C-alpha cells in the first residue's frame, strides 16, 4: 500500500474516527484505526464495537492495501506535521513509513484482517433531516437521558419516526425532554439510540442548513450517513416508557418569563442550592413576581424575576440542576412555566412555538 | 460595615487575591478572603501563610469595618452578578448581605480579627523593573526549577540584584536557566524566591511596557508592589548553588539553527521519545544538517533540520522534555547550540543577544 494525501485533511479525518476509539478497551486492535484504500479514496475506521465511524477522504492511491495503526500515536504525529503532502507506505509486515518534508516516521502496524468489520446496514428506505435541525434536536434531548444504568433503556433517546414528524424523547425519572420536528417520511419506525452515539454524532454534524443527514435502521443497528462520514451504532433493546401518558394535558397556573433572566437568577440561586442537599430552590409565584430562594448552612439567596401570571399563586420546589439544564438549551426568548399543584410536574415550553416540551418533577417542600 | 462597589472591579479583585488561597488548608479561616475598608478604599486579602496577596479597589465606603467570607462562594456569587453596583452590608455577627439589582445574598461571615496578618515588609531601598520585562524573566527561568523537594532550595529561583544588572537563575540537576537584565540598582542583594510565588506573580503582571513592579526584601520575605496589588512571600532559606562554575566558558562545536524549526522537529521526535524510556532523542550533527532520531517499541522517527556548523561532527543524546521546554520560551528567531564533547553539557543561546543562557546535560548514549 502506498499513497499521498494532505496533512490537514488526513488529520481532520483521524480526529473524526478517533471519537469511536476507546482507550480503555481490552482488545488491543481496537486501540487502532483501520486505514484502507477504497478505489481512489482512503477510508479510515475506528470502533469500540458499540459504535463505529468511517470517514472517506481523497488521496492519491499509488498501490492498494490496508493497515491498522495506533490511534493515539498516529493522531499525535499527523497533527504535528506541517500542512503539506504526506506519503504513507506499508510493507508486507505492516511496517508503515510516513514521510512529510524533513520528517520520516516508521510505525509498527497490525494486520487489517484482524480489525472487526462494522455491522452492515443497507442504505434503503431511510430518513432525511437537515444536519442543523438534527443537531438541535440532539442538544435539546440527550442531556435528559439517565446516567445510571439501572434501567439501560433510559440511557438512550427514543426516536419516533412518523409520516409527518420525527419526535425525540429522553427521560430519567426526574424530568422528560420532548423535541418534535415536522418532516415527510415514507414509513413509520421507532428506535432507542444510545446517548453516547448521539453525543458523538452531535460533534460531527455541521451547523450549515443545506446538508442533510440520512438515517437508516435495521432491527439492531442504525446508520447515520453524513456525506463522507458514516456512523454505525447498535440500538438499545427493550421497550421505551409510554411517555405520552406522563405529560399532563392541562394546567391551572401559567407564568410567562424571560428565559435568560430566569436562567441568570437560577444560576445564582443554585450557587447556594448546591451547598445544601438536593440542590433545592423554591419558587414563590405571586402576581407579577416570581421569587426564587435557596438556603444552605453558609447562607441564603433571594432572587426575584418579573412574570406574567395566569391563575393563582403557587409555591413549589425543584432541583435546580434539572431546571438549569433545560433553560440552557431553550433558544426562545420567553417561556411558559405551567403548574397544576405544588406536588405535580411543571411543564416548560417556548412561547413562540410548540415543538419543545420539558417536564420536571417538583421536590416536596417540608413545612 | 457598609459599602457600594462595582461588580466587575470587585470580581477581578477577588480573582486576584484568590490565587493565594489554598482549598487544601487545614485552617478554616484561610479558605476565606479578608474584606476590609481602608480609608475610601476596599482592601481584599488572601493568604496560605506562604504567600499573601492584597488588592485595593475604589469603593463608596458608607461605614468602615471588616469581615472574612468564603473565597470560593464569594467568588462564584460575584462572578454571576450583573455588571452593576453591588451593596455589601455586614452586621455585628459578621452576617453579610450582598445586594445587586434583583438579587440578595446573605452569607455567614467570620470575624476579621481571626484572619492572620501578612508579614511586614518596609517599602524602603527597593528595586524597580518594568512589569513586561519581569514577566519575561520569570517565564524564561521558573520552568527549570526542581519539582521534587529533596533539595528545597532548588524549588526556587535565585534573584541576584547587582548595581548594573539583575540575574535570575533556576536549576534542577539536569538543566539550568539564566536570564540577565541590565538595570540600575542602588545596592546589591540576593534571595531565592519560591517558584509558586513567581508563577502567581507572572499571572498578575501586566504585559504593558510602562508600568513597573517594585521589589522589597527583608531577610525572610519579599514584597512585590504592582500599583494596587501587593504580593508578600516568604523566601527559601539556605545557600543557592554556585551556578557560575557549572556554565562552561568555551565550546568546540557550535550550530546555528532556526528556533521554530528545531522546536517543531523536536516536538515530533518527542512523540516517540516519550513512548520509550528517558524521553531520549539523539542528535547527529554533520556539516549543514542536524538529524534528530528517536526509537520506541512502536516505531521510530527521523527528522532533519538545516544548521550552520562551526567545528566538528558530533553525536549526542538528550531528554527531549528538557530541550522542548527551553525552545518554547526563547523568543529569538535563531539560536546557537554549543557543544564540547558528547558527555558534556550543551549550551543554548539566542543569536541576537546575550541575556539568556540555557544549559542542558546530555544523556550518555550506549553503543
UniProtKB/TrEMBL annotation, chains A, B:
Entry superkingdom: Bacteria
InterPro entries assigned: DNA_clamp_sf (IPR046938), DNA_polIII_beta (IPR001001), DNA_polIII_beta_C (IPR022635), DNA_polIII_beta_cen (IPR022637), DNA_polIII_beta_N (IPR022634)
GO cellular component: cytoplasm; DNA polymerase III complex
Keyword hit for Electron transport: no
Domain DNA polymerase III beta sliding clamp central: 129-240
One GO-annotated biological process of the protein: DNA strand elongation involved in DNA replication
CDD domains: beta_clamp
Domain DNA polymerase III beta sliding clamp N-terminal residue range list: 1-118
PANTHER family: BETA SLIDING CLAMP, DNA POLYMERASE III SUBUNIT BETA
Official protein name in the record: Beta sliding clamp
Amino acid at each position: 500500500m502506498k499513497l499521498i494525501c494532505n496533512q490537514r485533511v488526513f488529520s481532520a479525518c483521524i480526529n473524526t474516527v478517533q471519537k469511536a476509539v476507546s482507550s480503555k478497551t481490552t482488545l488491543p486492535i481496537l486501540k487502532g484505526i483501520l486505514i484502507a484504500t477504497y478505489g481512489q479514496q482512503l477510508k479510515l475506521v475506528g470502533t469500540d464495537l458499540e459504535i463505529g465511524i468511517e470517514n472517506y477522504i481523497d488521496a492519491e492511491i499509488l498501490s492498494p492495501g490496508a493497515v491498522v495503526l495506533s490511534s493515539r500515536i498516529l493522531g499525535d504525529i499527523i497533527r504535528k506535521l506541517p500542512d503539506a503532502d504526506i506519503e504513507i507506505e506499508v510493507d508486507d509486515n505492516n511496517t508503515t513509513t510516513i514521510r512529510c518534508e524533513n520528517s520520516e516516521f516508521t510505525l509498527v502496524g497490525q494486520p487489517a484482517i484482524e480489525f472487526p468489520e462494522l455491522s452492515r446496514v443497507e442504505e434503503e428506505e431511510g430518513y432525511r433531516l437537515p444536519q442543523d435541525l438534527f443537531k438541535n434536536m440532539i442538544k435539546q434531548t440527550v442531556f435528559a437521558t439517565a446516567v445510571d444504568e439501572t434501567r439501560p433503556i433510559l440511557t438512550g433517546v427514543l426516536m419516533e419516526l412518523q409520516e409527518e414528524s420525527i419526535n425525540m424523547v429522553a427521560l430519567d425519572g426526574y424530568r422528560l425532554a420532548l423535541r418534535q420536528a415536522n418532516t415527510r417520511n415514507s414509513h413509520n419506525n421507532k428506535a432507542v439510540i444510545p446517548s453516547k452515539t448521539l453525543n458523538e454524532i452531535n460533534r460531527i454534524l455541521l451547523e450549515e442548513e443545506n446538508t442533510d443527514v440520512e438515517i437508516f435502521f435495521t432491527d439492531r443497528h442504525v446508520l447515520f450517513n453524513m456525506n463522507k462520514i458514516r456512523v454505525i451504532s447498535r440500538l438499545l433493546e427493550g421497550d421505551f416508557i409510554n411517555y405520552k401518558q406522563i405529560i399532563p394535558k392541562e394546567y391551572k397556573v401559567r407564568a410567562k418569563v424571560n428565559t435568560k433572566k430566569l436562567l441568570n437568577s437560577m444560576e445564582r440561586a443554585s450557587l447556594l442550592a448546591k451547598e445544601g442537599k438536593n440542590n433545592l430552590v423554591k419558587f414563590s409565584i405571586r402576581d407579577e413576581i416570581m421569587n426564587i430562594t435557596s438556603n444552605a448552612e453558609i447562607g441564603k439567596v433571594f432572587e426575584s424575576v418579573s412574570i406574567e401570571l395566569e391563575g393563582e399563586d403557587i409555591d413549589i420546589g425543584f432541583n435546580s440542576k434539572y431546571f438549569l439544564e433545560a433553560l440552557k438549551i431553550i433558544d426562545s426568548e420567553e417561556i411558559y412555566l405551567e403548574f397544576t399543584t405544588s406536588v405535580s410536574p411543571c411543564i416548560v415550553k417556548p412561547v413562540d412555538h410548540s415543538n419543545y416540551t420539558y417536564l420536571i418533577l417538583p421536590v416536596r417542600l417540608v413545612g
